[in-house]
Amino acid sequence: MHESPRLNVFFERVYAKEEVYNDEPGYDEFAKALKHAKDLCTEYNEPRIRSEKELREILGRILLTTVDEATVVNPPFRCDLGFNITLGKGVMINCNCFFLDSNRITVGDHVMIGPNVVIVTPNHSRSSEGRRRVGTISEPVVIEDDVWIGAGAIILPGVTVGEGSIVGAGSVVTKDVPPGVTVAGNPAKIIGSGWQC
User: What are 188-191's contacts with CB under 8 Å, separation 24+?
Assistant: First the structure.
C-alpha cells in the first residue's frame, strides 16, 4: 500500500489554512500524491465488472485505510489526494462524485451522498498575482452522521453539515448547516426541519 507523504512544511501550511503556491519548496511531494491518487482513481473507475470486495480494496488504497464493509462508493469517483478523506460506517456515495481533498474531508456514519456531488476544500488566491502562482488556501469540510446530500450539490471549503441534516439537490452550501435542518438553493438556506423538503 502506498504511504501518505511525510508531513513536510508544504502540507503543514495546507492544514494550517495558509496560502500555498505551486512554485514553493515541498510542492513536488504534493504533486506526486496528486498523480498517485489520479492513477488509483483511474483503476477504480475502469469500466469492467468488479466485486464489492475488489472495489473496497482499491478504495482502501486510495484512502490509505480500511473501508467499512457497509460503505459503498459507486464509480466513477474522483479525488485529489485520497488520504485526506475519512469515511464513516455505512456511507453511501453515488456515482460521479468528486472530492477535492487538499485539506481534510470527514464523512460521518450513515451519510448518503447523491450523484454528481462535489466537495471542495481548496479556494484560490484572491489576488491575480497569487492566482498566477496557483495560490491556494484549503479548509477542511465535515459531514456529520446521518446527513443526506442530494444530487448535484456543492459543498464549499470550511463547511460543516450538521448531524441529520438534508442538503437539497443542486444546492451550493457556502456556510455551516445546523443539525437537523433541510437546506436548499444557491446559496443554500434553511427551508425546514431535517425531514421536510
Answer: none
Domain-embedded: residue 51? yes
Residue 2 C-alpha cell reads as 502506498
Query: What is the dihedral sign for C-alpha 91, 98, 21, 128?
Result: negative
pTM over 0.85: yes
Looking at the annotation, which residues are catalytic? 124
Helix (H) / strand (E) element for 142: namely strand 141-143
> What's the rounded Cα separation, in Å, for the pair 107 and 80?
16
Residue 108 lies in a domain: yes
The identity of residue 142, as a single letter, is V
What CATH number is given to the structural domain containing 101?
A: 2.160.10.10
Q: Report pLDDT digits (tens) over 29-64.
A: 999 999 999 999 999 999 787 888 899 999 999 999
Q: Rounded to an integer, what distance in angstroms lies between the CA atom of residue 29 and that of residue 12?
A: 13
Residue 4 included in any domain: no
